[in-house]
Specification:
Largest sheet: 8 strands, mixed
Low-confidence stretches: 1-35, 83-142, 144-161, 180-186, 232-273, 403-409, 509-534, 605-620, 1134-1161
Oligomer: single chain
Structural class: alpha+beta
GO molecular function, one term: FMN binding
Family: Belongs to the EROs family.
Strand content: 5-15%
Number of helices: 38
Pfam families: Cyt-b5, ERO1, FAD_binding_2
Keywords: Disulfide bond, Electron transport, Endoplasmic reticulum, FAD, Flavoprotein, Glycoprotein, Heme, Iron, Membrane, Metal-binding, Oxidoreductase, Redox-active center, Signal, Transport
Number of strands: 31
Membrane topology: Peripheral membrane protein
Length: about 1250
Amino acid sequence: MRRRVSRAALFLGILFAFLLPLASSAPATPWTPSANAVGDARCTVEDVQFANEKELHELLGELADTTYMRLFPVDLNRPCKFWGKDAGAGAEEETPSCAAGDASDADEEPASAAFSHSSSSSFAGDRAVSLAPSLEPSAAPSCSLTPPSPIDNPRLGERQSATTPVDRTISPREDAALASASAPEEDCEEDESSPTFWLDMCRAQDAQETHATEHVNLKRNPERWTGYNGSHVWRAIYDENCLRNGRRDGRREVMGGGGDAIVGGASESESTGIDGLCYEERVLYRLLSGMHASVNVHVALRAKPPKRAAGIAEWSEDPERYARHYGEHPERLRNLHFSFVVLLRALRKAAPALLDVDVKLGEDAVEDARTEALMRRLLDTHILSSCAGVFDAFDESELFRASISSTSDASAASLKTQFKGVWHNISDVMDCISCQKCKLHGKLQLLGLGTALKVLLLPEHLHRGALSRSEVVALVNTAAKFSHAILKAPELEKLAREAAAAREEAAATTTTTTTAGKTERSADASDDDPPGGSDETTTRKLMNAAVRAAAAAARDGDATEEEEDAVIAAALASDARVLTLARHYARDTPGKFVKHALRALATPAAAAATTEKTPTATKRERIVDAVVVGGGLAGLSAALTILDRGGVVVLLEKEGYVGGNSQWASSGINGVDRVNYPENPDTVETYAEDCYKHSRGDNGNGNALAPESVEHVPALTRGSVETLEWFRARVGVDLSKVGRLGGHSHARTHRPASGMAGSTLVSGVQKKCDEYRSSGAFTVMKRHRATEITTDARTGAVDGVRWVAPLDGVVGANETAGWTRARNVILATGGYAGDREGLLREHAPFATRFATTNTPGSVGDGHKMAMKLGASAIDLQNVQIHPTGFVDASDVDAGTKTLAAEILRGAGGVLLTRGGVRFVDELGGRDYVTNTMIAEAEAEEAAGGLAANGGGVALNFVILLDAVAAAEADKHVPMYVKKNLLARRDTMEDVANWMDATLRARDVKRRPFGKLTRDVVTDAIRAHDDAAASGEPCPLTNKTAFRASGRFDLRGPFYAGRVTPVVHYTMGGIRVDDAMRVVRARDDGGVEPVDGLFAVGEMTGGTHGRNRLGGNALTECAVFGRAAGRAAMIVRDGETTTTTTTAAAAAADATAATRGGKEGFTLQITRDELAKHASSDDCWVAIGGDVYDFTDFLDDHPAGAEAILKLGGTDGTEAFDAVHGRDMLEAFEAVGVLAE
């Protein structure tokens, strides 16, 4: 008996197909539909695309972006009804059963009764007829939409913990606007002939029928690649229901090979397949296939995660992913167009009812009016008429027409019930997805399609009052999603074509023979070599290429003279092994070519290159123009400036990533910008006055400083003007937002509209530097720690840097030393805030009592190397204690804390004592705020409270933001909430309860006696607002600058955090002149520059005095980094032959050649060393034998940082493979391999 496949099982599979990492070979050439019919609708693909581009895309996008439409009511915690089955059910069957089973046999009855029937009608047949279209001709395709019994498969029955959590952040305004909209009354009849039969079409997905509904902001949860591997779910369904690859019992599967994207549409080429389905089956199938296509397009648009270490700050597209889906199956895109047409038809049919929907939330009259206007415009007669070809292209009256004319009442009655039952079962499967974001978008789009079907199948007089808020939101958003996918698919197709063409061109340049054996032009051949067809010509070209490569490797220091001679001799002897290697390596990687050639020849030179510990080798190597030590913003700015001048730069970075402390700076970069902000009264002179004032300390009231302590203020403030323009014009970063931080007279702190200032600037400059890597002008040597600056014995000028790196790449074992020659050395190693027992204790012992916000690498390496050469230091005792470092409740005693950025106070946040009292001008200078906090703690101790130095909560304070402040700091607040450093509190009572429980607020002595904490805080806020409204200085704190947005919103919600003073910045450092040249003392009391040595960034002194203004750190890095880059001497017209000493370099390079290393060698990382990298500042994970540094990716990980951190320092292969496909790792480069 022929096996049959459950039709409903295919629909279950379709919903999970987009979760399956799709196996494919090289992407085929993509295709976009041409002028052809959509199928099952009266329009062409071009009709849909034209209407979408002309009117619909922009309008739907704007409407979906309104507050009403972007807040989707959804229940993401609805239990999976398929869990709870016996995990061993069916495990003993040798062959999976293809029958769905009667409802009476199931442990749990499906959403509607099982569709088991026997009849002579056109719907008659076996209980589970295959949905896979028959290849045999059929005069009248039969329909039997059989919903499955609860899935009896052990793999689906295994509960998985939720992954890729949804960002549940709702802005204060959105939260205030959300009033519970009651679900419409549904008086649904089970009688198919009843007009109300379709009212419960969306029952399973309409969140308003549950008690766990929450509103999720869709804009905070864009549809993108998550790395989630849903193959276990898909394969359970796939195997259980016999959906095999290829042909089976004379039938063809509807799915593409290997579970690839869904085949769709009704093209001539597949008319024997899809057209073999009855109309109702085909419509249902194509709607789900269209949803699948939309998902695939959106995932391809945002498929590659940010790689800040590589200068990529945003998610980017992956056109090859798109090509894998649609390169060989362009017909699948027609299902997307078809589904969009069905949605548009539903919008048109429901227009009168939708115009009656109240889309006003009542919180923002302007936003409410905008939403109403956009809805009216979408449903306006003009739009409906101008795009009538697509709004009316689908004819829903064709559905169930066969059942209406059927002579069998039983058959006529069954198909509608089957259709609705299948939809309900598909909806139930969505609750089984453990990827929360996948579930969110799956539920949204399935509900949108279900709503469209509900509208089309209900009589029009029932539309009013039949649509819930979640259905309206889902219908509009699904239409907007499909519209966006239709618009963007051609763009992905174009990018994929260009990538394919580039690959073909690259392949062509390396091809030397045709299929007929005729020799063609080789890229390795000399330009003077004429094209030829003989083997002799080919050999000669490869010989030339090999000789040129050997010479280049020797010139660049990648080969000794002995190695060069050995390779050239073999090339001239036409050694087949060397010529074969020349074909693949000589042109692009001469150094690697030489190493492989030596290994193949097994010469003494090759033996030396593979010896584990090679004696010192003498190499001829060019002298680079500059070695930059430190990869923060200062070092990168200097490097890019030199590169733009035509110089050659090597950047040494001791960490495994570039960015330093700069990448964590979030408040912004200071600068005077009168071009983009002409109304701002700020001037360079005013900026300088602010710097001078606050450099004295004590909120500008401290004692006068020596002139050399602030000698670089003029250069800083003047340079800020052109530096802002440099970032915008040369680097191309967004600095469109400007705010005012503490101590500043005007708003002059610039930041991007999205992302954090530090990481955005670092990524932008790094990206521009990396553009020079392919030419060899820019080299980055990570995990290379500089140990000494060398000088010419005759002239005293700097001539290079000695460094150490792990021996043979084994981190944590012995180190190997090297020396890089350079005309200039630019030190950009940061401060010494992390050198607790060294420079910090020697010069600023008071600071050692505090935790720090600095990375572990801030230990004064550059200071110590410079001072060994006699460099002068200045103000090393001046260390900034920042007032607000977050206290993480999970690790209150952590020595490294996260900075609570000053923008929180600039946006209107207030500081309170543990007891709830305001005590300080929040916008005062950092030292003033910190000193006031310490004084307050000491006063509390004097009053009989906790000892100020006693640890615990004694030196803890509260930072409190209202809804308005949170909205202003809209990038910082969500990040801090995500890290559990700020917490949302809905009412002031909640804030008070937290303070009482966590900070012992009721025990504080210096607070109004007998008052509840809630009342103390409320009174403090009101007094603050009264002072702001008065126009006079605050009588309590003398605060004069208040936010312009009005009073503190006491209605809630609030965002509260626990803060304490932390070591943040070292103002003192190495003394430099105006060109950033390091200076040293002369015998006569003056100073002189150290020829060729520069210092920039935090390691220098002479700018900030006793106190640095917020935002000046990034300004200093960029302004002075560029100054050093301009002053460094470069040579453009030649290279210098010299001697370089390296230890075990050849062995390291040989390892890299076999493992694909890019920085000279590949690290062999021991498990003990791996275990050391397990923090949020340094997180390594081993996967599949390779070790990855995910530090920069933590905050961008869709499932949250904690999901990676819990694997930090360990082999996470098993945990990774349970959730992700290995293709996720394509976006990352391994830092090494795990040594067994």
